[in-house]
Amino acid sequence: VDGTLETEFAFADFDFLLQAALCNDWQNDVLKVGQVKKPFTVERVQNDLKKYRRFTGCLVNSLDLSVAPNAIVTASFALMGATATYGDAVLSGATYKELANNDPFDSTGENVALKAQLKINGKSSNVVTSISLKLDNGVAQAHVVGQRAVATTGLGNSSVTGSLAFLYTGDDISDLFINREDVSLEFTLSGKGGSYTFLLPRIKLTSESPGEQDVFTIINSDFQALLDPATGTNLQITRKADTPSQTAHNDIPSVQG
């Protein structure tokens, strides 16, 4: 069983999926990549038939995040589950919490509270035109003869990669690639409900290629996140709510198990 949940990224409603993707728990509003399996059950209702479809033993195999100017921030969670079943009523013990329903992070002007701040090596940068981020957990499933459902599921080594596009105004960022330097990358998404700060404390720029050059030059650069000894992680997310109650949504409309 596998599928993808594609969504417009907003504050609070995806905190459960974020900790499932990073294989760890929120600790004092900080989430780091870990090695703890966070299985859950997804239940989907078809209201016209009053039928419930359940996907059990789901893990987040990968997370893709895309941030671009004049666009809504999007997130894609790739799920892998053990089996699918059907029912005529809500699964006993299911928790369906009211969603925060915050507006998605965007930079179109519709969400005037948005502030997308980015730092490279601790210094603010205003030349980055887009960021994409991919966390891959390398989930593997084992099957056995005589059993339709997955027998067991394991996590591989976490991999965090991504890409930057930036407006070329000098050699500062390019030099980081040419000299193969370690780079810290940090960006904050702020909007209705609160903010998330994504910190990649140690990345390597692995490629660089020029884009449009008629009027100005856009440089596209891929990167690989590495384990940072100081923070003990390759990716860290810090959340900050406008009000304390906003961070209480660590569950999604599903059943854990």
UniProtKB/TrEMBL annotation:
Lineage of the species this protein comes from: Bacteria, Pseudomonadati, Pseudomonadota, Gammaproteobacteria, Enterobacterales
Pfam families: Phage_tube_2
Protein name: Phage tail protein
